[in-house]
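Handout, section 4.2: multi-component inputs.
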Amino acid sequence: MTKTQQTLETAQQAFEHFRHGLATGEWEKFIAILSDDFTFSFPAGPYQGLNQGKERMAEFLGYVSEKVFSQGLVFTLERTTFNENTVVFEGTSEGLMFGNPYKNQVAVSFDIRGDKICSYREYLSLVYQP
Amino acid sequence: MTKTQQTLETAQQAFEHFRHGLATGEWEKFIAILSDDFTFSFPAGPYQGLNQGKERMAEFLGYVSEKVFSQGLVFTLERTTFNENTVVFEGTSEGLMFGNPYKNQVAVSFDIRGDKICSYREYLSLVYQP
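Output:
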């Protein structure tokens, strides 16, 4: 298997855990696949900008599932693009944000090192200010 | 050359024209590479959401270069991911937005058909409301 194929497989596995977390609030499997020096960036809200660490990501995901999308968010995957280090998932996320109907186009980019995700970047297509 | 390689080459050429347009306001070469049934989506402002047609894109790019970033916007490319139909460019854009310092992480996704761009989707990493 080439490095690009390994990267894609690792990212796709992580993405399934990510999607499961969004839908259910169960984030253990996703967090287990993050590297120790993991970083993430997010467009808006209290975690806007660049954040450091798995613990910070766990906090953020708890906030997302408990406060923002407490009834779950459904991510419909539309496209996957990749190279040997990075995989981008484009799709639609839909649910209730703070109880109000929410739908957005999203691009989520994972950097992979070995069998871990070392970086996560989220980009939004429609701007909603909570 | 595989279809994926052709897609990547077409998209990279278009992206150079796109970057040139952002920096200079000269959009002719980029617009020439768009398909007749071209669509685009953008996160904010008067062109927020899904838009149809090359003419609408030309209007939008004129608005961007004349009103929003009238002194030009510099796009620094950081990552390119791809599959046989789609290429995503991730990077940083920096300049003056309505005269104020502006810097953002951006993902731009092109769908390719033949030697044309048939769809453009822009996603932002930091939310700025103009």
